[in-house]
Amino acid sequence: MSQKLTCKACFAHRKKDIRVEDRELTYNDNEVIVKVEAGGICGSDIHYYQEGHAGLSILKHPMVIGHEFAGRVYKAPTNSKLKIGQKVAVNPSQPCNHCEFCLKGKQNECPNMRFMGSAQFNPHVHGGFSQYVVVSEQQCFPYDDNIPAQIMAFSEPTSVAIHAVNVAGSLVGKKVMVIGAGPIGGLIIAAAKASGAIEIIASDISERCQQIALEMGADQAVSPLHDEIYQKFADNKGYFDVTFEASGATAAIESTVAITKANGTVVQVGMGPSPINYPVAQMLAKELSWKGSFRFINEFAVAVSWLEKGLINPKPLISSEFDYQKIEQALITATDKNISSKVIVTFFDK
């Protein structure tokens, strides 16, 4: 039997049109209601606000944004393992689990993926920037009540970082470069350190991001504009066993071939422009592996565990917090990369 609940949510209507409005939720006895406490603004949320679309996903009707969030169980199904009031991180990934990719354990490639806070399908899949959300029990991952929701709001991007590390293979004893020290790059630094990398160097144009990279665990942070430093990395067929490219910048993508050691691996995480002038001949001669890393599979549970245990500490990435009623100000602030890494939106009762 379906029931209803009314709450406030952050709806993106079109370009530069974000509103906090009433939302009516419909749910049944087999679903979980989560009272949202905190969420992180992602690049896709910024694109929906600034441009009215994120890539090819175009807003066709008002959509609740946000896919990085955590909260408390408000209602759980009968006989559920979840308890009322229990803190949970919510996995926004909803694969179909019956296509050939899902059956092979590659749910991140599911063509029917209904990812929360995405306008890929019409009707769109509403996100988590809402006082309450309706999700499945499988999407809920309990965590220690002493951990702030602002920390567990990093579960989704941390999953992306851990997946990138898994795509690279073992990092034990490896020298690693992370290009782009934004939120994903910073989390990759922390994940690489937790995974046994012996040396981690970060590269970013921003001095602010370089400092954050050091706080996230990098041994050194450099600017890609320092040609002399980059040339040393490129000498003798490269320096790094594994390079993670998390900026998506054309010049950065091209530079990975020079600085990665022969027979090394480049993991492309940043979504760069297409096409690019990629140095194929040099890549071929060095027998590099160039791998894409997209979203995550079963890494969400690992991310929750690592954040819970403090193996990854995302606090240096938090640049500001806003109440959800100030969502437009939060999005504008998040857009300014001179001052922002990760902007947190909170839904705590006042």
Structural write-up:
The chain is of the alpha/beta class. The protein has 2 domains: 3-154 and 314-346, Quinone Oxidoreductase, Chain A, domain 1, CATH 3.90.180; 158-292, 3-Layer(aba) Sandwich (Rossmann fold). It is built from 11 helices and 18 strands. It has helices at 43-51, 100-103, 149-152, 155-168, 183-194, 207-215, 227-234, 250-259, 280-285, 299-309, 327-335; strands at residues 3-14, 17-27, 32-40, 53-54, 57-58, 63-64, 68-75, 87-90, 132-135, 140-142, 175-179, 199-203, 220-222, 240-245, 260-268, 289-292, 318-323, 342-346. The strands form 4 sheets. Strands 3, 7, 8, 9, 10, 17 and 18 form a 7-stranded mixed beta sheet that branches. The protein has a 6-stranded parallel beta sheet with strand order 13-12-11-14-15-16, with helices on both faces. It is globular, with a radius of gyration of 20 Å. The model has no long low-confidence stretch (mean pLDDT 96).
List strands and helices in order, with pairings:
Blueprint: E1 3-14, E2 17-27, E3 32-40, H1 43-51, E4 53-54, E5 57-58, E6 63-64, E7 68-75, E8 87-90, H2 100-103, E9 132-135, E10 140-142, H3 149-152, H4 155-168, E11 175-179, H5 183-194, E12 199-203, H6 207-215, E13 220-222, H7 227-234, E14 240-245, H8 250-259, E15 260-268, H9 280-285, E16 289-292, H10 299-309, E17 318-323, H11 327-335, E18 342-346
Helix pairs in contact: 1-11, 4-5, 4-10
- Poorly predicted segments: none
Termini, distance in Å?
32 Å
**Largest sheet features:** 7 strands, mixed
Helix content: 25-40%
Second rung of CATH, namely the architecture of the largest domain: Alpha-Beta Complex
Number of strands: 18
